[in-house]
Amino acid sequence: MKLLLTDSGVKNARIQDALVDLLGKPIAESSALCIPTAGYGAPDADPGGPWRFISGRSPLHMTGLGWKSVGVLELTALPSIDEARWVSWVREADALLVNGGDALYLAHWMRESGLVELLPSLPDTVYVGLSAGSMVMTPRIGQDFVGWKPATGGDSTLGLVDFSIFPHLDHPACPENTMAEAERWAAGIGGPAYAIDEQTAIKVADGTVEVVSEGHWKLFNPTS
């Protein structure tokens, strides 16, 4: 699986070019499934957020980029659907567009639904995360970002990449997300960690990690 882990969606031309590069064809020739699930898990969640994400009415551009087709894959519904049906939907999609919200809630449902077990068998599919949809792929999110609490406790997510993400750096809506706070957070993560702003994404393909940015970012705790 190829990853484009964004802070705030496809916010600029460089991030969009990175998406097209991962797809290997224009967005207009590509099919997508959007996954709104994380939008229900945050403590301040409301039903309007998932609707805006699905409908393309959100300013965080994901579903409204001009895809050939867009479908909805709601993870909480998958355990009640024949597995062969929804697996075929996922395998046929060129991209998975994964909403923000609560990363631990999303991790829970990615495991419960069986989607996380399917992901390694999708080498050509592009996973496009938005905020929590990006953070869920990391080993852990840090206690600062724990909202919904799993029964097992902790802040562990899926660990499909070996770095963590501090999102919304210096965003007006998140005045606490300063670079100094990101540095304090990173000191407790215990591994590589990126602080990224809304104009930044992290592209992962064939084992190579590349920061795609027209904004500000910083890598903490590099391994080399």
What does this structure look like?
Keywords: Hydrolase, Protease, Serine protease. It comes from Streptomyces doebereineriae. This is Type 1 glutamine amidotransferase-like domain-containing protein. It holds the Pfam family Peptidase_S51. Belongs to the peptidase S51 family. Strands 3-2-4-5-1-8-9 form a seven-stranded mixed sheet, with helices on both faces. The protein has a three-stranded mixed sheet with strand order 6-7-10, with helices on one face. It has helices spanning 13-23, 48-55, 83-92, 103-113, 115-118, 132-135, 179-187, and strands at residues 2-6, 31-35, 69-72, 95-98, 126-130, 164-166, 193-196, 200-205, 208-213, 217-220. It contains seven helices and ten strands. Helix 7 links the parallel strand 6 (164-166) and strand 7 (193-196). By secondary structure, the protein is an alpha/beta fold. The mean pLDDT is 95. 25% of the residues lie in helices and 21% in strands. The two termini are 25 Å apart.
